[in-house]
Structures are given as structure tokens and as C-alpha cells.
Amino acid sequence: MTAATHSTLFPQVPETPDAVLDGLDPEQREVALALHGPVCVLAGAGTGKTRAITHRIAYGVRAGILQPATVLAVTFTNRAAGEMRGRLRQLGATGVQARTFHSAALRQLQYFWPKAVGGELPRLLERKVQLVAEAAARCELRLDRNELRDVTSEIEWAKVTQTVPADYPAAVAKTQRDAPRDPAVLSQIYSTYEQLKRDRSVIDFEDVLLLTVGILQDRSDIAEHVRGQYQHFVVDEYQDVSPLQQRLLDLWVGDRDDLCVVGDASQTIYSFTGATPDHLLNFRTRHPGATVVKLVRDYRSTPQVVHLANGLLSQAHGKAADHRLELVSQRDKGPEPVYAEYSDEPTEAEGTARLIRDLVAAGVPAGEIAVLYRVNSQSEVYEQALADAGVPYQLRGAERFFERAEVREAGTALRGAARAGGNDSLLDGAEDLAAQVRAVLSTKGWTSRPPAGSGAVRDRWESLAALVRLAEDFETAKPGATLTDLVRELDERAAAQHAPTVQGVTLASLHSAKGLEWDAVFLVGLTEGMMPIAYAKTDEQVEEERRLMYVGITRARVHLSLSWALSRSPGGRASRRPTRFLNGLRPGSTASGARSGAGGVGGIDRGTGRSAVGRTPAVERKPRSPVRCRVCGRTLTDAGEMKLMRCEECPSDMDEALYGRLYDWRAAQAALLGQPDFCVFTEKTLMAIAEAVPSTAGELVVIAGVGNRKLSRFGTDVLAICAGEAMDGESEEGADET
Fold first, then answer.
1. What's the rounded Cα separation, in Å, for the pair 617 and 290?
2. Which among 227, 346, 717, 724 is least surrounded, fewest beta carbons within 10 Å?
3. Torsion 68-71-75-77 (CA) sign
4. Bridge partners of 523?
């Protein structure tokens, strides 16, 4: 039983409600059947979370339990919402609303504004940068394009965290956030921006959420109208909700509990935008009676890729790490991850391009290959290396290097300096080519030391620094080269990379790769200072960098390469070190201390029923350590081996007679419950029981596939069979609890 990773272009709509459940694994099926009460789905990378929740909605609609028009499914991108609508349509569940938070809120705001406020809704400001620039000017500040982008992002962060202008400086200090400008100055710009919007009767996208929240809080009649319309809510990527989005969701739901959330705290990589996994991690606290289902069967990646991903998170710390999921690959074995150390960055790029060319020659489509890096400025050397190797490529989430505004501006300045020659005072005292380039680019924002923090200013500096490094390398390769020679080289590089490359290898930052997957992934530039990034100072920031690398690893289906360079340029001092995140994972390295436990056991915990004030919270299952072979001690990642608690090749001491009795008992139980045999225990679990011959509940519960729930239902029977007692196969439990 597998979760499909690819489907036909026009799949056949399931004929019956039960047919909607066909092909779901046991945990996905539990999600689909959990149609009442609060439900929390903890879904690891590649475990089919979208499949599970769309089948849940479709089953409820097709079975007549949910009315399509009363279901609202929300996610974070238009692409994800469109995919959800497409899947629901293929399952025969038309009429369900699948929208982004902003889209759903805007629709409600447009409908209720005349009643709640009067008149027409103010015009929506598509891009706020121009108004931010005017606000800055009124504060006697002139910001360049990149500074404007950073200041705009700060205003957006403040609004989604519900921070008013006066409180912004304190919020920055409390969160240890790297502000692009003095917080007091930013507070002034923020306040002026808000006043300009009021003066011109316009609203921005964050206002859409804020105003919807305000109306629902102030007008109970409108809130009840919305709650009457939408009675069942599903939230995807719940680890990415901001405090403002959570407040809106609370108002939508009201005092009801028909809410299903889906997420993975280990994929929280957008905290700089206000996203927080706290709402996901605290869901059981807020909803004591919640059903919690863990999806850990990874259908995307091979056991080798999954083993590395699990190992990376085993060294994580913090609240999100306490709830990490131990993935279990459902795929056949594949190649081991490749670790490659290079002398310098150009050599790393050339080596990566050669490996990619070999994969393409071996039949892997170029479109199924990705090169992922930490910052966009790293793309240039890979663009050039792939172009030199004759491998087509495409950039995702960023402009091509030579099309970036700062690179074009730098090219213009260098071209002007080259024409002026010795008549340009900027070049006075600059004896060599690299010094001349540094002098020219210093007028465009380049400095010898990088700016603090992240954002557009840092991205701009990285692009200019890449040009400085290129000049240094060019001079090393061609002693005596002039500024004119360098400009000609830049023009040739830019022209060579303008050819269409739609079907090529994807070049992308790790952030922009979220939600995507490829047959082969190359993670490059994995050195200290880049991964984790140099400005990740606090423990929380470093752990987010670890999660970012985890996202990169889990994008790979089969082939995974991880590489780093010991120096920046050829002949440079080999002073760089591979990322600390690979300590204990790459060959020849020492572990920095792995965690002994994880919350990664798949399954379902139904809690105590519907949440209510005063209801006793359910006792959560204790985290289990990684499963190891009881014969040789090797860590197990294969699902079948984990069930057996031993390697397939290790000798078995199974009691054949006991296995036969368990097999017959299982068949009788399944018939009584009206469910397939595997819903009682899988064959591998029966084999594991027959091998272990447990005599106590404690010995039985630790066998993979048993757990507390099945121990309470079937433990007495199983232990009696193991003790040699005869059983008639009957049980007093009801089928509705399977």
C-alpha cells in the first residue's frame, strides 16, 4: 500500500465514498476518517499530507457527512490552494472552498464592509514600496531600492505579529531581530506609512487580515454569519501561521472544534516573516481532546536520503526538535548520499556540473535535477559552470545573476570607469584590476565587511562581492588584464546565459525550494558561515538554519550530493570548514551529540474526546528512541525491518507455531470488526511478536506496530496467545475504533 507521488493527467473519479479511501496507508486513512472534533496531523516531509487531507475532505463530502459549501480549507500560496482544489475536483468533491488566508479574508471583507463600515472597501494597495518610500522621505530619509525592500518587509513583519509602530523598537529588542535601520527610525517610517494610507483611503494586504479580524471581533452578528457559512476548517502548513492569521482562524472557528490542522515543526523556515510553529506544537494544550495523527511513512525519498535527514534532526535542540518526526522510507534502497570536498568554489561548481552532466547522460531528465544554495548570490558560479558544461538550467525564486538590478548598475559603473581610464579619480591609487573594481563598486554599496543581518541589503552586497571575487579570479587567471578586459568578460558571460533554459536544471535558494522535489538534489556551499549563515547568532536562529538544510535534503527522491569548498578562489588559503550540521553524519567526522529520543512514531492518538473547559488532557505517548536491530544493533530505517526489529539478513528465531496461532486470531478479529487484516496487525508485526514472544505488556508495547492504543485493545489476547492459552478470536471492542 503506497501513497502516489505521481498520478495520471486525468484520473478517474472514485465511484463511491469508500473508493476515496483506496490506496491510503493506515495513518492517512485515520486522517480521512477523523471527521469530527479537533484533529492535528503531524506530517513529515514526503509523507503525503496533501493527499491525506484532500481525501479526508472528499470522503466527508462524498459520504454526506460534510456539506461542500460549509468547508473552508486554507493554505499559504495560490499554487498550494490551486493544487488542493484540483485534487478535490479529481476526487469528486466540488464546491469546497480552498483559498489562501488573504484570499478568504478579502472575500469576506468585500462582502461585509458595506454593512459593517459603510461605503465601498478602500482600494487595495498592490505594492506598498512606493508609499513606504514617500513615508521615508517625509521622515527626511532617502532609501535605495534594496533598503526600501527591507523596510517594507519590517513593516509587514510588525503587522502580522500585531505590533503597532510605538511598540516596534521593544519588539525588535525582545525578539533579537536584526533590523535594517535603527528601530526608532523604522518606527517613525512605519507610523508615517500608516498615516499616508489613512489619508489616501487605501489598505495593504496585511490590513485585509487586520480589518477582517476587527470586524469579526466588533460585530458578533457578522461573526455568527461567517460561522454559519463555514462549519468545518482545514489549515495546511500550520507551522507557518503568524499570530495575526491564528487570531483570524480563532474568530472563524469560534467555540466550535471542527478544525483540522496539518504541519511539521521541522519545516519551520520562515520565522523572519512572523511565522511560528508554536500554534502547531501547542495544539493539544489548546484542544485537550484533539485527535493527533503522525504521518512518518516517507514515499518521496529512498532510505539513504531519509536516514541522513533523520540523522540531521537527531542533533537538533529546542521545542521544535522535541516534536521531530522520525521518517520511515517506503521506497526501495537507492544510492548513498555523496559527500564532496573541493579546493575552491569554482572547482566545486565545475565538479557539480560534471556530476549533473553524467546524471543527464544516464537518463535523469535535467528538469528533475536541482542545485540548492543558501543565498541567491551563489548562483552565478553555478550558472557559469552549467553553461560551460552545456547543461541547460533555470533560476527559481530569483533573477538571473546578470539581470539583477545591482549587477546591471555595477556593470554600467565599471564600463564607465573603463572608458575613462586614468581620468577617473576613483581609480587613483588602485594599482591592480581587483583594487580598481573594489574602488568602483564601493560607490554602489560594496564594503570590505558585509552588512549585519539578512535581507535585501545583504543580498545586494553579496552580488557585488561576487563581482569583486570574479575580478580577483580573472586577474589571477590573466595577469595584466585591464578593466576593459573584465567588462568584455562580463558582457560575454551575460550574453551566454540569456538563452532559453526552461527545461533545464533548477537553480534555487533553499527557501524557494520548499514544497518542491526532484530526483536528484545537489546541496552546495555547505560551509560554516553559509550554513548556518554568518548572521545566525542565537540558538533559535541556528536551529532554523538546521531546519532549512533538512528541507533541502528532503527535496531529493533518489540522488543526493552535499559539497563544500575549503577556499573561495583558486590558490586561496584552505581556511573554511564544512558545516557543523554534518558532524557525525559525513564520513570521517565526529558527532556533536545526538538526541536519544524523538516524537517520530507514526500512528494516531485520539485524545479524550471533544475539547472542553475542564476536560482532562490526554496523556501523550512517550517519544521512542530510534529503532535498532535486536540482533546486530544497527539503526533501522526500512519500514519492514523496523516492524521486525531486526535486519532482513539477520537470523530469525520466530516461533512458527505461535505465528500460526496469531495469524488465525488476527483473521477472526478482522472479520469481527469488518476491516482488512492489516488494521489489526500487519504481518511484519505478527512476525515480530512471534520472534519476541512477549510475556508482559511492557515487552509487547515496544514492538513496532503495537503501541498503547493496540495494546489496550488487543494486548490481553496477544499475551494470552503468547502464553499458550487458546483464544476464540472474539473481542468486545467496536469496529468504529479501528
1. 9
2. 724
3. positive
4. 372, 562
Cα separation, 419 vs 214, whole angstroms: 60
The alpha-helical segments, DSSP class H, found in 183-291 are 183-200, 205-218, 220-229, 243-253, 278-281, 283-286
Tell me the DSSP string of 142-163: ---HHHHHHHHHHHHHHHHTT-
pLDDT tens track for 86-114 = 888 888 888 888 899 999 999 999 999 99
Please, are residues 242 and 105 in contact by the beta-carbon 8 Å criterion?
Answer: no
300 contacts: CB under 8 Å, gap ≥ 6: 5, 45, 46, 331, 517, 554, 557
Residue 191 · residue 165 · CB < 8 Å: yes
User: Whole-angstrom Cα distance, residue 324 to residue 327?
Assistant: 9
Taking the C-alpha atoms of residue 266 and residue 658, their distance in angstroms, rounded to an integer, is 41
Cα–Cα distance measured from residue 339 to residue 337, given in angstroms and rounded to the nearest whole number? 7
* Tens digits of residue pLDDT in 341-366: 999 999 999 999 999 999 999 999 98
Of all residues in the chain, what percent are helix, strand and coil, respectively (each to 5)? 50, 10, 40
pLDDT at 729: 44
Confidence label for 5 from pLDDT (cuts 50, 70 and 90): very low
Neighbours of 197 (CB within 10 A): 18
DSSP reduced 3-state for 562: strand
Q: Is the pLDDT of residue 622 over 50?
A: no
Calpha distance 383→393 (Å, rounded): 7
Q: What is the pLDDT of residues 116-125, one digit of tens each?
A: 988 889 999 8
Burial of 236 (0-12, 13-18, 19+ CB in 10 A): buried
- pLDDT single digits (tens) 171-182: 988 887 888 888
